[in-house]
Amino acid sequence: MRGLLIAPVVIPLATAVLLLVLRPSRRVEHALSALGCVALLGAALMLLVRVAGGGVAAMQLGDWAAPFGVSFVADRLGAAMVTVTAVIGLAVSVFAMAEIDDRRRRFGFAGFVQILLGGVCGAFLTGDVFNLYVWYEVMLIASFALLTLGGERIQIDGAVKYVALNMISTLLFLSGCGLLYGLTGTLNMADLHAKLPAVANQGLVTAVAVVFAIGFGIKAALFPLFFWLPASYHTPPVAVSALFAGLLTKVGVYSLIRFFTLIFTGDAAFTGALLAAAAAFTMVTGVLGAAAQNEMRRILGFHIVSQIGYMVMGLAIATPLALAGAVFYTLHHIVVKANLFLVSGVVRRLSGSGDLARTGGLYAQAPLLAALFLVPAFSLAGFPPLSGFWAKLFLVKAALEAQAPWIVAVLIGVGLLTVYSMTKIWAEVFWKAPPEPRAALPPLRGGERALLFGPIVGLAAITVAIGLWPAPLFDYADAAARELADPRDYVAAVLGSRP
Amino acid sequence: MSSLILATIARVAVALMLLFSVFLLLRGHDAPGGGFLGGLVAAIGFILYVLAEGPREVRAALRVDPRSIAFVGLAVALVSGLAGLATGAPFLTALWTSFGDVKLGTPVLFDLGVYLVVVGGVLAMVLALEEEVG
To answer: Fewest Cβ atoms closer than 10 Å to its Cβ: which of A16, A138, A210, B103?
Structure first.
C-alpha cells in the first residue's frame, strides 16, 4: 500500500530518467514512454480501487511521522484525478508519436512529458502545502521546457507570458506558505485543518486564504488573471497543448477545492461569495472571448477558461451536491478538452492550418474525424446524452437547491454560448467548401492514422460511456464530495487516531 | 575576454570551490549545507571557468553533457528513495549502516543526487546562454 501511494510519482520520473539518460532510438523511445504511461495507469487504477473500497489512504515519506514529515494522501478525489491524468498521459504520448518531429524528439520531448505527469500526480497526492509548492515548480519547469521546445518565435512569445504570470502565482503561493506557517507552525494540510480554527486573529486567516485563492486562481486561469492561457496554449505542438489543456489548469482547480474544503473553511460566506463572483466572470468572459476568435486552438483555449468557471462555481456553492458536480465536471472536462485539442491537431495536419479562414471541407475529406469532433464538442456544450450534460445538470440542480437563480442563469446562458462556438468550428472547419487554392499535403499513412485517431477514439468512447452510464461516476463523485465536505476521515488517516 | 590573470587564478580557485562544494555536500546532513548548496557552489566554480576559458573548454573538462549529469542525479535520488521502499518501509526512509565510527546511509545518496541535478541543470543553462552569446 505504501508503495502504491508513491508509485504515480516514481513511475513517470523513473521513465523520464530512462528516456533522458539513455536517449534511445525512436522505436525504443516510443515503446518506453507507452510502457511508462500504461504502468502509471495500472498503478492509478489499483490506487483507485483501493481508495474506493477502503477509504482515505495515507503514507509518511521517509517514515517521519505527520505533521513533521511530508504526508502523501489519496482520497477519492486525488485517486480519480491521478487516474484521469494517466489516461490523458497515455493518449497524448500515443498522439505525439505521430506528431512530434525528430528535432523535438531529440531535445527530450517524451522525457519532459513524463516529468510533467510525475509533477501533476505529486500535486494530486501530497498532503503538505510546501510539498505542493514543489510539485508546482516541477510542473512549471517541465511545462516551460515543453512550451519552448523547438524554439519558434511564436512559442517563445507565448512561453514568456506563461512563465511570467505563473512565477507571480508561485510567489504568492510561497508567501502564503510563509504566512500560514507563521500563524500555525505547521504546513501539513490535515494538521492545518485542526489548528487554523484556534488562531486568534481569524481576519488574518481569511486574508491568507485570499492570497492562496489568487495564486491558485492564476494557475487555474480564473478571471481576471486568465489571459496568459489563450496567449500561450495555441503556440506549441498540439500534443503539448492537449496535455496542458487537459491537466494543468485542473491542478489549480484541484488545489482550490482542496484548500477551500479542508483548510480555509472558517469564513465560508466570504470566500464562497468571492469564488462565486470570480467563477461567474470567468465563465462569461471566457465564452465571449472564444466567440471573438478565429483560430481553432485559441477558441478552445478561451473555452478552457469558461469551463474552469463551472468547476469553481461548484466549489463556491459548496453544498455536497455542488461539490459532487464540481468533481464530476472536472473529470469529464479533462477528457473532453484534451480530446478537442487532439482533434484540432488532426485538423491542422489535414489542412495545414488551424485558422478557420484557411480550413474547410473536412466533412467530405475526413468524415470519421467530423463524427469524432461532434462527441467532445457536444459534450462540452452540454448536449444530452453526453458527459457534459450530466455535469451541467448536477451544477444547475445544486444552484437551484441553493436558491441562487442568478447562478442558474449564468450556467445555462454560458452553455448556450458554448454551442455557438462549437457550431462555428463545425461550420468553418468541416462544413463550408474548402478555400481555393489549397496546398497539397501528404495523405495520412496507415500507421500515422492509427496513432492520431487511436487516442481520439479512446477519449471519445470514455465521453460517450460516461454519458450513457453516468450513475457509477456520479456515485463516486458524490462519495468524493462527502469526503471533502466532512474531512474527518482525511485528517484521521494522516494524523493517526488523534482528533 | 581572455585574461592571463583570471585564467591563472581560476585554475586554483575552481579546484578550491569544487573541494568546498563537496565539503558542503557532506556537512549538510545535520549542519547548514547539503546537496542544493553544494551543487550551486560547484556550478559557480564551473561558471568561473567558463568566464576564464570559454564554454568549449568547460564542456571538454566535464566530458559528459551537463543535462545527462542532471538526469543521472535524478536517478540517484530516486534510487535512494526506492531503497527504503525495498525494505518495506515508506518511500525515502533512511537506511543506515556503519563502518566503525563512520555511519553511512541513504540520505547521503539523496543529497548526492540533488547535487548532481543542480550542477547539471545550472551548467546546461549557463553553457547554452554563453554559447548563444559567444
So the answer is: B103
Count each helix (H run) and each strand (E run) in chain B, helices first: 5, 2
Residues of the domain holding B32: 4-129
> CA neighbours within 13 Å on the CB side: how many for A382?
20
Per-window interface: A 37-96 vs B, CB < 8 A: 59-63, 72
Ramachandran category for residue A75: left, alpha or beta (phi over 0 → left; psi -120 to 50 → alpha): beta
Q: Are the Cβ atoms of A20 and B90 closer than 8 angstroms?
A: no
Residue B85 exposed, middle or buried by CB count within 10 Å (0-12, 13-18, 19+):
middle
Is the minimum CB–CB distance between B67 and chain A shorter than 8 Å? Answer: yes
Mean residue pLDDT across chain A:
89
Residue A295, classed as helix, strand or coil, is: strand
Cell numbers for A340: 478537442
Residue B51 lies in a domain: yes
How confident is the model over A27-51, as pLDDT tens digits? 898 999 999 999 999 999 999 999 9
CA distances from residue A299 to A377, A406, A420, A424, B132 in whole angstroms, order as listed: 12, 26, 11, 10, 36
* Cα–Cα distance for residue pair A154/A160, rounded to 1 Å: 10
CA distance A459 to A474: 18
Give CA–CA dist A135/A121, Å, rounded. 9
- Chain B contacts of A109, Cβ < 8 Å? none
Contact, A87 vs A111, CB < 8 A? no
d(C-alpha B53, C-alpha B2), whole Å: 7
Domain membership of residue B134 (yes or no) is no
Q: Give the model confidence (pLDDT) of B50-81 as tens digits.
A: 988 888 888 888 888 888 899 999 999 988 88
Q: How many domains does chain B have?
A: 1
Phi, psi dihedrals of residue A356, rounded to the nearest 5°: -60, -30
Selected for mutation to probe chain B from A4, A9, A17 (highest B CB count within 10 Å) is A17
